[in-house]
Amino acid sequence: xxxxxxxxxxxxxxxxxxxxxxxxxxxxxxxxxxxxxxxxxxxxxxxxxxxxxxxxxxxxxxxxxxxxxxxxxxxxxxxxxxxxxxxxxxxxxxxxxxxxxxxxxxxxxxxxxxxxxxxxxxxxxxxxxxxxxxxx
Length: 136
Prior knowledge:
1 helix; 4-stranded antiparallel β-sheet; 3-stranded antiparallel β-sheet
C-alpha cells in the first residue's frame, strides 16, 4: 500500500464575531505615479556664482551656499553674522568665509581660471553682498 498525504487542516475557528472583527483598512487616495514639486517663487534680486572643478560659492536672496568636493552647506541670511572674501595668497583663488551667528566659521575656496576671472568676481561679489547685507 502507498501512503496518502494527510488531509489539509480544517477551517480553524472561523472569522471573529462581528464586534471583534478588524475594521477594513482605510487607504489614501491613489497618487499619480509622479508628483510635481510645487512651483518655487522666483527669487528677487541679484545673485553671484563662482565655480571651479570641485568647489562653488553661491550668494543669492536666500543666503550663501558652499559646495566643496560634492558636499554642500547653505546659510540663510538670518543665520549669518558676516561674510568675508579675499584672494588666496598666490592670487589664483577666491576665498569666501561665512561667520555664523553662533561664532562658527566656514570657508570655501574657488580656483579662478583664468586668473583674470578673479578680478571679475570681486566687484560682482561686493555688489551682491552689498545688496543683501548693506551694513556688512
